[in-house]
Amino acid sequence: EGQNRKTERAKVYSNVDLRKAGDHRYSVTIDDLSAEGCRVLSPNNVEVGELLFISFPGMASLNAHVRWRRYPETGLQFERPLHPAIFDEVLRRLGH
């Protein structure tokens, strides 16, 4: 983590919804965001490589894969990087 980051990262502190395939959504705290992924705190029983669906306020959910876990943090990588305009809109919706 950290050595090969290509994009701007923003410190955020807000709640987002996460969901596993076929499961209920639950709220987690996001505390770091880039166009390529994010870091969330204390998700329920997720495994490295697992596909999750993350929902930012008022937006459609995005596919994200668990890249690493170091309790209580988990790193997620978006299946497709966010377009710069979408990244800015997500930051705005998270109150940044």
Please tally the helical runs, counting DSSP H or I stretches of 4 or more residues. Answer: 1
**How would you state the average pLDDT, rounded?**
90
Strand order of the largest sheet: 2-3-4-7-6-5
Per DSSP E runs of 2 or more residues, the count of β-strands stands at 7
Low-confidence sequence ranges: 1-5
What is the helix/strand order? Answer: EEEEEEEH
Shape: globular
Biggest beta-sheet profile: 6 strands, antiparallel, barrel
Cα end-to-end separation: 24 Å
Task: Calculate Rg over CA atoms.
Answer: 12 Å
- Helix vs. strand class: mainly beta
Helical fraction equals 10-25%
Beta-strand fraction estimate: over 45%
Task: Describe it.
A hairpin with a 2-residue loop joins strand 3 and strand 4. By secondary structure, the protein is mainly beta. Helix content is 10%, strand content 46%. The protein contains one helix and seven strands, in the order E-E-E-E-E-E-E-H. It has one helix spanning 84-93, and strands spanning 9-10, 14-20, 25-34, 37-41, 51-55, 62-70, 73-78. The model is unreliable at 1-5 (pLDDT under 50). It has a six-stranded antiparallel beta barrel with strand order 2-3-4-7-6-5.
